Every structure is written in structure tokens, then in C-alpha cells.
């Protein structure tokens, strides 16, 4: 498993240690794990495959995203996260190259210690890359929490999330560092949101570099 340790100086947003492994499942067309601190996700991509007639879209692929909790049945919380991940993937995938077909992304929560939606997005991107699906850009997820003293915490743990007054997760694209999707909770000002976006964009550079290094190392082993 590839690992990256974030520098803890003031100029760089602090991210927990993270790692990823691709192609570890045999049945999906692409798979990946993504670990951020003690938060861990497993992702599998199936397709392009035949699509049910009632779900068929004539000019592009139909994308379905399923998030399985660690235990029990999916709840409203999972459905909301599924929508966030699907919107992000649809913005990045060149789905018009596979019209009238179906793509399914299954995300399994292995362990949740905060920043779960960001970890879902990172696992999803690594799995889509592993499946070799055509994409216009890569994407990553960054979560920010605002604590009661108005400090911004990047990649917060579950405990830090619980103590925060606001929580924001952004999906960021690799080309222009634009925001593809945002999910927010709690009370915050416009200025605070802008600060969180800027911090997340800065943090995303480190994650995209990690993607590149992971792929480079993986293919240098193959050659």
C-alpha cells in the first residue's frame, strides 16, 4: 500500500497519513482502497455493462452509486452521500463514450473516523482510474471542520467533527482546482466558507500528487 505523510508546517493544510491500493478485488472491473488516518473505504467499479431498459439513457452511460455502511442497512445519510459522489463522478466521467450502458460504483465503509465523504470520493476516483474509464479530469475530496474558536481543521477525525460548529466537504477537480460538488452542515459565514474552499484547494494539490505517485509506482513495477 502506498502511503503519504503530510508535513505539519503552517503553510500546508494538515492531512492525516493516507494510503491506497488498486486492483485488489477480482470481480469488479476496477477497485481500490483509500485510507485517511483511521477512516477506510473500499470501492469497486462494474461496467460498462448492459443497462435495464427503464434506466437507459440514449446518449450516455447510466451511473449508479451505492454506499454500504460498515453494519446494518443504508440510511438517508448514505443516500445523501451517494448523490454527492454520483454528481462528482458524472462531472468527471466522459459518459457519452458509453451510451446506453450502465456503470455501477459500490463503496463499502471499512472504518469511519471522520471525513468519510472525502474518503469516499478519493476511493471512487482511484477505482475509476483502475477501471480505465475515460475521464476529462481527476477529482479528490477534502473535508474541513470549523471548531468553536473559528479555526479550520482539514481532514477532521470523528471526534473533531462532533466538536465542530460547521463541516464542509468539497470535491475538487485536478485541472483548475474548481469545486465540482460541496456538502455543508452547521452554521458558518460566507467568508468562512471561502477560507475553507481555499484551504481545500491547497490540500487537494497534495492528494493529486499522491495519485500521480501511486500510479507511477504501480506501473514502474509492471514495466
Automatic annotation (TrEMBL):
<dbReference type="Pfam" id="PF01138">
    <property type="entry name" value="RNase_PH"/>
</dbReference>
<dbReference type="InterPro" id="IPR027408">
    <property type="entry name" value="PNPase/RNase_PH_dom_sf"/>
</dbReference>
<dbReference type="InterPro" id="IPR020568">
    <property type="entry name" value="Ribosomal_Su5_D2-typ_SF"/>
</dbReference>
<dbReference type="Pfam" id="PF03725">
    <property type="entry name" value="RNase_PH_C"/>
</dbReference>
<keyword id="KW-0539">Nucleus</keyword>
<dbReference type="GO" id="GO:0071051">
    <property type="term" value="P:poly(A)-dependent snoRNA 3'-end processing"/>
</dbReference>
<keyword id="KW-0698">rRNA processing</keyword>
<keyword id="KW-0597">Phosphoprotein</keyword>
<feature type="domain" description="Exoribonuclease phosphorolytic">
    <location>
        <begin position="15"/>
        <end position="134"/>
    </location>
</feature>
<keyword id="KW-0271">Exosome</keyword>
<dbReference type="GO" id="GO:0003677">
    <property type="term" value="F:DNA binding"/>
</dbReference>
<dbReference type="InterPro" id="IPR001247">
    <property type="entry name" value="ExoRNase_PH_dom1"/>
</dbReference>
<dbReference type="GO" id="GO:0071028">
    <property type="term" value="P:nuclear mRNA surveillance"/>
</dbReference>
<dbReference type="GO" id="GO:0003723">
    <property type="term" value="F:RNA binding"/>
</dbReference>
<keyword id="KW-0238">DNA-binding</keyword>
<keyword id="KW-0963">Cytoplasm</keyword>
<dbReference type="GO" id="GO:0016075">
    <property type="term" value="P:rRNA catabolic process"/>
</dbReference>
<dbReference type="GO" id="GO:0000176">
    <property type="term" value="C:nuclear exosome (RNase complex)"/>
</dbReference>
<comment type="similarity">
    <text>Belongs to the RNase PH family.</text>
</comment>
<dbReference type="GO" id="GO:0006364">
    <property type="term" value="P:rRNA processing"/>
</dbReference>
<feature type="domain" description="Exoribonuclease phosphorolytic">
    <location>
        <begin position="139"/>
        <end position="202"/>
    </location>
</feature>
<dbReference type="GO" id="GO:0000177">
    <property type="term" value="C:cytoplasmic exosome (RNase complex)"/>
</dbReference>
<dbReference type="InterPro" id="IPR050080">
    <property type="entry name" value="RNase_PH"/>
</dbReference>
<dbReference type="InterPro" id="IPR015847">
    <property type="entry name" value="ExoRNase_PH_dom2"/>
</dbReference>
<dbReference type="InterPro" id="IPR036345">
    <property type="entry name" value="ExoRNase_PH_dom2_sf"/>
</dbReference>
<protein>
    <recommendedName>
        <fullName>Exosome complex component RRP46</fullName>
    </recommendedName>
</protein>
<comment type="subunit">
    <text>Homodimer. Component of the RNA exosome core complex (Exo-9), composed of EXOSC1, EXOSC2, EXOSC3, EXOSC4, EXOSC5, EXOSC6, EXOSC7, EXOSC8 and EXOSC9; within the complex interacts with EXOSC3, EXOSC8, and EXOSC9. The catalytically inactive RNA exosome core complex (Exo-9) associates with the catalytic subunit EXOSC10/RRP6. Exo-9 may associate with DIS3 to form the nucleolar exosome complex, or DIS3L to form the cytoplasmic exosome complex.</text>
</comment>
<dbReference type="GO" id="GO:0005730">
    <property type="term" value="C:nucleolus"/>
</dbReference>
<dbReference type="GO" id="GO:0034475">
    <property type="term" value="P:U4 snRNA 3'-end processing"/>
</dbReference>
